[in-house]
Amino acid sequence: MAMPTAARTGFRLTMLCVAAVLAGGAAHSMTSVKGDSEDRVLSVTAAQQLFADAPDGVDHMVTGPVSSAFRERQREAGCADAVWPNVPLACFPG
User: Fold this and answer.
1) CA distance 18 to 13
2) I need a labelling partner for 88 at 20 to 30 A (CA). Which of 33, 38, 69, 71 fits?
3) Rounded-to-integer distance, Cα 36 and Cα 40, Å
4) How do the residues of the chain divide into helix, strand and coil, expressed in percent and rounded to 5?
């Protein structure tokens, strides 16, 4: 059973409008103000890459037993004054 001509035309116009709205939204989301993408680029530190599953940070001061060589390495790296996310990898054991 065929659809009446008016119904087919209405359906086609509806689909055309939906496609136009979707295309307009996609085009809008792809454009940006000059320099906008540069402002949104985030630099990721080595500590953030190492602990990507901890977005709020990781305590870099080890409180358990470690070697004196590790403690010295922490002192040399300035771990006591480091603030997340700018924590040298030398502050973490392993």
Assistant:
1) 9
2) 38
3) 7
4) 55, 0, 45
Rounded to whole angstroms, the Cα distance separating 62 from 69 reads 13
Tens digit of pLDDT at every position of the chain (94 positions): 566 676 667 777 676 656 655 555 655 555 555 555 444 456 788 888 888 888 888 887 788 898 999 999 999 999 999 998 899 999 888 7
Please tell me the distance from the alpha carbon of residue 60 to that of residue 56, in angstroms, as a whole number.
13
